[in-house]
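User: Here's a protein and a ligand (glutamine). What would the complex look like?
Assistant: Let me lay out the input and then the predicted complex.
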Amino acid sequence: MNVARLLDDASVQLAPALGLDKREARIEARVLAGHAWQVDAAWLIAHDTDRLTDEKIAAFQSLLSRRLQGEPVAYIVGQREFFGLNFAVTPVVLIPRPETETLVEAALERIPGERPWQILDLGTGSGAVAIALARHRPLAEVVAVEASAAALAVAQANAHRFGVSNLCCLASDWYAELGVKKFDMIVANPPYVEADDPHLGQGDVRFEPRSALAAGPTGLDDLGVIIAAAPGHLARGGWLLVEHGWNQGAACRALFESSGFSETHTLRDLAGQERVTLGRLPG
Ligand code: GLN
């Protein structure tokens, strides 16, 4: 059995099992092999016709069978790229998603580069949003809060991994442990999926922490709490930016307005869906 043959066989199994096209299945097979053998993509190409030891085949097959059971690639390989950084992820945190880069970009556009700025990230999970902001704005000070102790440990490990020193991780259920400190910006990618959304029973999402995804019958339970209490934790002129579901833009704008925010508007993600609503407290 050589490398090319093993990867071909694996993609033939992966495609129908996970509803992938041929190209996606081949990419997944390569990612699994790269992780099983601790080699990069260039090695796989250069060693196409190498005969594999039984040990190498077994290492690959064990990852392949996990993937065939539906386990997300990010959990199998223990990492996922977000905003140009490879974040460690485990099943206690949500897997960072490309649409969340819209939230980071919108925040970065508003954070000055040349002076200190206080940022709060609510429900940081793997720390992806907080760390991306801290890395791109070294003068900013980021507080990342998370209610799950296990998730907070992943965020802390990622902060350490990227050598971020302008970030502090805090165990807190939303604002509960924050005290009187006022922030210049609050960002959040909270749970916002409707509790009975069939999407929760499909694909990668089945393996992710339900508490990071679902938020009551309309998906707005946590967004409602976060938006309503935000003015109490923001300095005058401070910004609030939240990620939400494709169909929650109007509800979020209404919540922002009833909480006293101005300049409220919604941004679309790269797929064209309403994804991030933001607003500013009057100065
Ligand atoms: N966008 C994610 C999904 O639909 C949900 C992320 C979240 O709830 N914050 O799977």
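Summary: The pocket of glutamine is lined by residues 97, 189, 191-193, 205, 213 (CB under 6 Å).
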